[in-house]
Amino acid sequence: MPTTTHVVTGATGFLAAALVLELAATTDAEILCLVRPGRTRPEHRLHQALTEAATAFDHPPPLLQTALRHARPIPADLTVDGCGTDPVRLRRAGRLEFWHSAALLAHGDPYRRRIFATNTAGTRRLLELARRADADVFNHISTAYVAGRATGLVPETPVHEPSPRNHYEASKIAAERAVLRADAFPTRILRPSVVIGHSRTHACPIHYTGAYGIQQRIAAHARLRAHGPSRRLGPIRLRAAENVPFNLVPVDHVVRQAVEISLRGPAHGVFHLTNPNPPTAGAMLRTMFGELRLPEPQLTTEPTDLSAADRRLDDLLAFYTPYLLTHPHFDRTRTDAVLTAPHQAAFPMETAVLHAFFGHHARHLDHCYEALLQS
Ligand SMILES: NC(=O)c1ccc[n+]([C@@H]2O[C@H](COP(=O)([O-])OP(=O)(O)OC[C@H]3O[C@@H](n4cnc5c(N)ncnc54)[C@H](OP(=O)(O)O)[C@@H]3O)[C@@H](O)[C@H]2O)c1
Description:
Rossmann fold; globular; 2 domains; binds NADP nicotinamide-adenine-dinucleotide phosphate; seven-stranded parallel beta sheet; alpha/beta; single chain
């Protein structure tokens, strides 16, 4: 078997930092990390991201040292012609396997142009760079929510009838299409659901995104409400359907399955890296409120049930609310067929587990708030 070199984008971010650590734990391969030049040098940014992730996941120091030895930063920017990198710097004697995780996880109209420039045009540029570097396989980290408005069973197949709910989903659907059109190498589409911290430590390195954004907005709204004229209005009411599944999946489950698919699975097709046992939106929201020391929320699916104060939170949650109301069920037949122990993909989220994740985040928010007050 020829040696493999991995090329990873987004390694200064949450998911791909975990991916680099997983690749370092399971292979001896060199890992070329395409890092966007920032205020500090790419070497420094990559070192910092991997160290933060290894600390949050409580990995033993030798694993971090291995990752730092195997990972090599190469400056690159998805929004620049040719990604600003010479493909010759990536060519190696053995196999070259790409992992495209970099993206802009922003929402709202002001970000529209940047979202498409990074997620869609950026993916096209990276595919071209991979072709010029003679890549052997291209793994694209997408999202299970390319399903958009679909409900019921969502198959592990390309999106046939796009129904995106926001610019982010639309940009990721278009990126998948570009990947599926590539014919210079086989491509895999890996679709995580909503990624949260590590299954054992519950910590989340780099920054808290996804579901944590909901808890951040509830916390901000509750602080303002506690000091304003609506403080006597009673429990907060928000739009969500009590029993729809909210598919949270721990980051270590996502990267472990991704690497196993790369080592053992077919080199093409769509794979859902989701949780077969997701919690309900109701259970998740009650836990978030409990960890913020707020009274239980009242859930409604009717916008007309909201008070003027509740509507302010509804505005803050505009991006997230569709995910609290729709009921997709992500099929995992192809993914489970590859994994040696598919039952281990299940991560039941009982109340205590949800409290561990969102309690961790609530303490982080308290810490940020205290720091802000003291600054
Ligand atoms: N987090 C989730 O819940 C979730 C769920 C499903 C799917 N996903 C997918 O998983 C992937 C990783 O998400 P994440 O949570 O790790 O996001 P993240 O923490 O925000 O990381 C994004 C990464 O992309 C890089 N990046 C952004 N713009 C770039 C550009 N123009 N050129 C080069 N690199 C650029 C960032 O680099 P800088 O450090 O320079 O900003 C960072 O390393 C994304 O494709 C996302 O769509 C995430």
